[in-house]
Structure formats: structure tokens, C-alpha cells
Amino acid sequence: MIQDKHREQERLAAMTGRLLARPMQPAPNIAPLGLQSLGLEDTERDALLYVPKSYQPDKPAPLMLMLHGAGGNAYGGLAPFLHLADAAGLILLAPASRFNTWDLLYGEYGADIAFIDRALTQTFSRYAVDPTRIGVEGFSDGASYALSVGITNGDLFTHVIAFSPGFMAPQKRHGEPRIFISHGKWDNVLSIDRCSRKIAPQLQRTNYDVVYQEFNGFHTIPTGVARSALTWFNKKGTER
Q: Which ranges form a coiled coil (predicted)?
């Protein structure tokens, strides 16, 4: 009966884009470092976790949820920060969308939120995560999803990083996460004029703390922009 009630709560939360997972005291087991699969799915649409070499159970680490673009996968989701994670001491969690892209892009929240919640719950149960330094990042469709999920769950995520987003559709505003947006001036996939040049001012008008960067480029994440976003995350990480 209790289990059925919990499942119903999870289902209703997923439909509204809400994540129930929260950082906790992890189990006192030896948890592996480096790149690993969470084993939540038997298919290639599983989630990947990267734990930096510097991780220590008695020192909660920052965590970034990484969301790939349309047609992507979990490994692709890790790409922007994978080569920077060890130096930053940053845990990276990259789920794969259930279908070609994220559920909201098909019209509503659901299966992807439920899967992300499972991935976060498992990660929190194994690793010590700093609750004041939890971010969600995405590129393209993943950036649109990061903005939407990040604002809907701003009581979990302290930071949102959106590389070349197309739109945002939060279910409801919770908390006040800080937001970083970048976009290429010559983007021929998601026009900067129709997308970020409208999104960033809209967020600023509703009192979000927004850093907005345009760069000379197309639909991509330049290494310098990725570094800039991570520097911003680390600099603001101790403030809430």
C-alpha cells in the first residue's frame, strides 16, 4: 500500500516536471570513481555517471546533470564538461532521453522526468553531493529542457546552463536558480534572434540572475564558452 502510494506520487510528479530526488547521506560502501553506467536500463538508453578522481566521501562534491541534444545519447551529453570534470572536482550525470529527444519536446513531461529522478536518486544514495552546488546543463533541445526543468525544480538546482536553447516551458517556478545562456550569432539550426535574444531578456525581466554570452559561431559549444560556464558555476557555487 505504501509502495503503491509512493509510485503514484512519482507518477504525478513526473507529469508536472517535478523531481523528488534530493541529496542524502550516502551508503558507507566503496563507490567507484571514473566513468560508469548506472545500470538502470538494459538498453543503450541508460544513464552515465562520471565521478572525478579527487572525490572523497567526506567532502560533498558539486554535481551537474548533463542533457544531450536531439538524436544524442548519454555519452554525448557528457561531452561539454567531461575533460574539465577532474580539475573542477565535478560529478557529471548524463541520462539518455527515452526517445529521440526529451519528452517535453513531444508535448508534455513524463517518462524522461521519471528516469532522471531514478538516476539522481541512485547517484545521491552512493555519492556525497553538495546541495548548494547542483546544476543542470544542456545543449540545443537539451538546453531547452535544462531551462524548463531547472526553473521547475529551482529548489533542487542552484544553477542552469543552457547552450543554444530553442525555448523554455517550465511547468511552474520553484526557487531562483542562477542561469547561464550562450548562443552562436550565426546559428543556422536555432536562430539566435528567435531564441536566446528573447529568452534571456524574458528571464531577466522576471528577476532571474542571468549571464548571457553570444559568440561568433554556429550551433555548437566552443571550448572557451564551456570553460566560461564552468568558471561561472564554480564562482557562484558557494552562494545561494
A: none
CA distance 223 to 184: 13
Three-state secondary-structure class, residue 171 = coil
State phi, psi for 64 to the nearest 5 degrees.
Answer: -125, 125
Q: If DSSP codes are grouped into helix, strand and coil, which group holds residue 103?
A: helix
CB 85 within 8 A of CB 156: no
In which residue are the cell numbers 557555487 written?
Answer: 237
Instruction: Report the SS3 class of residue 115.
Output: helix
pLDDT band of residue 8 (cuts 50, 70, 90) is low
Q: What is the DSSP letter of 54?
A: T
- Distance separating alpha carbons of residues 161 and 77, to the nearest angstrom: 13
In what side-by-side order are the strands of the sheet with 159-163?
34-37, 47-51, 91-95, 61-67, 129-139, 159-163, 178-184, 210-215
CATH superfamily membership of 2-21+43-236: Alpha/Beta hydrolase fold, catalytic domain (3.40.50.1820)
28-42, 164-178, 197-211: the lowest-pLDDT one: 28-42
Average pLDDT over the chain, rounded to an integer? 93
Domain boundaries, the chain: 2-21+43-236
